[in-house]
Write a structure and sequence with these properties.
about 350 residues; mainly beta; 14-stranded antiparallel β-barrel; Porin; about 50% strand
Length: about 350
């Protein structure tokens, strides 16, 4: 009975969050950027990038949620001037909730435009748009309803009496983003971004075939970062995120320290802590070597999950997340380039 109630409770929570907000939320959003912010597509010191993410959530309360995502993006050459570039990318996501009671498969494409309005390229403005397709399915046979209980005992063979229009939902979504980066000096960089989703009405429940237009579909997020190189070996960066999905908002703040033990060698170690307010405390660690980077984080859940843990005598619920990034560069033949004088 305990296991059935827990599965049902967390399935209901996940179903509400997943259908109301099209995008899955990640702790390491800054390591898997353009999935939730299209302006970050092709936005970096690389020619192409391959990223992967795996997230396992709430395993200790027997209602495991798992997500696997992979993406790739390209930074294209100049289009209108020597100060701009394009970015194009594609991402795939496979999400399983409550032991495959519900599944989501998502595929999307993103396009971005980046421009440096100043000659020294210290400022950068980016604009992006993405379109994604989401397929959701629900296994009604794995659900438990109140009508199937006889007193305190579950009778799984008893008909639930519930009726559903379908067990599959297909949706399209459109997102837009804008970001700004500024290199204050050789040691300091900062940036802000804003993205929004939910421009296309979509079906949000399995009970009715009609679009749920009476609900607020909007989703937006605002982010900021600051990085400072203290010395050739030590650097720090901070991240902040405010996100709102279907009138439910959340805030996350964090600090990461980087250590390069041998400045002449391409090895970097990272440690950090984050706080998702009213949700979790996060421990973070990472290792990068040359063009490869692996990062791991663990969310130590706070209320209300800990309350359920204490009532049922379960171990602490939490979320484990790992990301991988590879940045590649094109091989080009040496060439000469004329730099225009700022005066003549």
């Amino acid at each position: 009975m305990k296991k059935g109630n827990i599965l049902l409770l967390f399935f209901q929570l996940a179903l509400a969050c997943t259908l109301k907000g099209q995008n899955i939320g990640f702790t390491q959003y800054f390591n898997y950027l353009f999935y939730s912010d299209p302006s970050q597509t092709g936005n970096g010191d690389y020619d192409y990038r391959v990223s992967a993410l795996y997230r396992q959530q709430w395993e200790s309360i027997e209602a495991e949620f798992s997500t696997f995502a992979v993406s790739g993006d390209l930074r294209l050459g100049n289009v209108f001037s020597q100060q701009d570039s394009w970015g194009v990318g594609v991402y795939l996501l496979d999400d399983h909730l409550g032991g495959d009671i519900m599944q989501n498969q998502q595929v999307g494409v993103a396009l971005a435009y980046h421009i440096h309005p100043d000659f020294q390229a210290r400022h950068q403005l980016s604009f992006g748009v993405n379109v994604d397709y989401v397929f959701s399915s629900l296994d009604f046979g794995s659900l438990v309803f109140e009508s199937q209980y006889q007193g305190f005992f579950l009778q799984p063979d008893v008909a639930s009496g519930e009726s559903f229009a379908n067990d599959r939902i297909k949706n399209l979504d459109l997102g837009m983003g804008v970001s700004y980066r500024f290199a204050l000096n050789q040691k300091t960089n900062l940036g802000v971004s804003l993205a929004s989703y939910g421009f296309i009405n979509r079906q949000e429940n399995f009970i009715s075939d009609s679009d749920s237009t009476q609900y607020n579909h909007s989703e937006w997020l605002a982010r900021g970062f600051y990085s400072y190189q203290l010395s050739p070996k030590v650097g720090v960066e901070s991240h902040a995120q405010v996100i709102s999905q279907s009138n439910v908002s959340g805030v996350m703040l964090g600090l990461i320290g980087h250590y390069t033990p041998f400045p002449a060698k391409p090895i970097r170690l990272s440690l950090g802590m984050f706080r998702q307010f009213d949700v979790a405390y996060v421990a973070y660690g990472g290792l990068s070597y040359k063009n490869y980077e692996v990062n791991i984080s663990y969310d130590f859940a706070s209320v209300p999950l800990n309350t359920l843990r204490e009532i049922n005598g379960l171990s602490r619920p939490g979320s484990f997340e790992v990301t991988f990034n590879f940045k590649g560069f094109k091989k080009t033949a040496p060439s000469t380039r004329t730099v225009p004088c700022r005066i003549f």
